Structures are given as C-alpha cells and as structure tokens.
Amino acid sequence: MRTIRYSVLAMALAFTTFIAAKAQTADEVIQKHITAIGGADNWKKIKSVKMQGTANAGGMEMPLSIAILDKKGMKVEYTINGMTGYSILTNKAGWNFNPFQGAKKAEALTDEMVKEGQTGLDIAGPLVDYKAKGNTVAFLGKDDVEGTECYKLKVTHPTGKSETIFIDAATYYHIRSVEKIKADGKEMEQISTFGNYKKLPEGIMWPMSIDMGGGGPMDVKSVDINKGVDEAMFVPKG
C-alpha cells in the first residue's frame, strides 16, 4: 500500500514538474522574443502606426496603406486602376467599401466579423504583457516553417479565440501566425507570414514584408510611428 502511495505521489510530482517546465519554456521564449523585437518598454510607447507599401493584385502593383490606432481602430486602403477601396475596423464596428464590384457606399461588417478582428487592433501583439491582457500561452515544442526551425506557441484570448504563433528559434522574431476565424458562420484558417525585419528609430523591429494570405505579400516602403493617425480616419465616407 505504501509503495502504491509513493508511486502515485512520484507521478504527481513528475507531472507537476513537467507542466512547470513547459510553462517556463513558454515564458522563456516569450521573453527572448520581446527582447529581440525591442523590449516591452519601447512597444508600450507605440500608440499608432501607419504603413505605406505595395502588394500584387493580379500581376499589377497595388498601392496599399494600413493605419492602426492602438486598440481603437484600423484602416486598410488600396488603389487599383484609379479606384480606391478600403476596410475599416474599430473596437465597436466595421465597414468595407469595394468600388471594384460596383459598390457606391461602405457596407457594415457583421458583428461576428467585428468580434473576430479585434485582436488586430493590438499593435504590440498578443505576447507583450500577455498575462495582463488575459491571454494564456501554451508551449507546443518546435516545428519547421519553410526550412526555418521555430518555437510553436498557442495563444488563447479571453474571447476564446486562439492562434498559433511561430517564433524563429535563431532570431526570436515572429514569422508566422495561424488563426481559426469565423466568417458567415463557417470556421476558416488564416495564415499570416512576416519577414524582412528592420529596426525603426523608435527601437523596435518591424516586418517590412507582411503576407496576410490574400493577394500576395505587402512590401512595406515606410512606417510612421505615433503620427498621422487619428480616430477621424475610421469613419466611412458617404
């Protein structure tokens, strides 16, 4: 009886140690990641960002801009053949204007789409101050992303939404995210890839190549931090 009791105790201690080791590994990866991209203090100073660049649209170079006001709003604007479309998301609502399909005014996004997009309003991302944001992180070991060895982390947000983040094991940069998103009542997988990191004057590392799994990667030409973005940008025209 005593042997069984000691065996159960040993198993319990081993399991506790195993869980603690995995949690510690996740925190170690996160801390090294945050240090590699400029440190938490620098990221906390960022209240807005505006990117200008180009993307490929059916073989044509498409001017593209993305503006984000931290936790308040985001606007993506793109121009093709002289016509400009846009998508707006705020912490309360969202709109999409697509003149290429004959739209005359912006159409409201569904509540489901607005809810799914909220994590995109967090400029610093889900790992900086993840506990304070109510996120939980699980360490899933290592994986290969197109020949790059990565640490694999699963982040679960307070809403229940989860995403898998891949951190380059050599640089500790975030190079890929895989999210389960819902649209029209269906669950889909969205893959985002980040690369060509550059150090900005603000002391942070920023990806100059961003591929959200749409019409090809955005080649970022310029990044403005804490200027040129205000809430008036997130009101649909017309």
Structure description:
There is one protein chain. By secondary structure, this protein is an alpha+beta fold. It has one domain: outer membrane lipoprotein receptor (LolB), chain A, CATH 2.50.20. Helices cover 20% and strands 45% of the residues. The protein has three helices and 13 strands, in the order ααββββββαβββββββ. It has a 13-stranded antiparallel β-sheet, with helices on one face. The longest helix has 35 residues. The termini are far apart. The N terminus is likely disordered.
Lateral arrangement of strands in the main beta sheet: 6-5-4-3-2-1-13-12-11-10-9-8-7
Strand residue content: 35-45%
**Could you list the spans in which at least 5 consecutive residues all have pLDDT below 50?**
1-24
- Mean pLDDT across the residues is 87
Provide a quick synopsis of the model.
With 238 residues, this protein is of the alpha+beta class. The chain has helices at 2-36, 40-44, 111-117; strands at 48-57, 60-69, 73-80, 83-90, 94-97, 107-108, 136-145, 148-156, 162-168, 174-183, 186-199, 205-211, 218-225. It is globular and about 50 Å long.
List keywords for this structure.
3 helices, 238 residues, alpha+beta, 13 strands, outer membrane lipoprotein receptor (LolB), chain A, 13-stranded antiparallel beta sheet, disordered N terminus
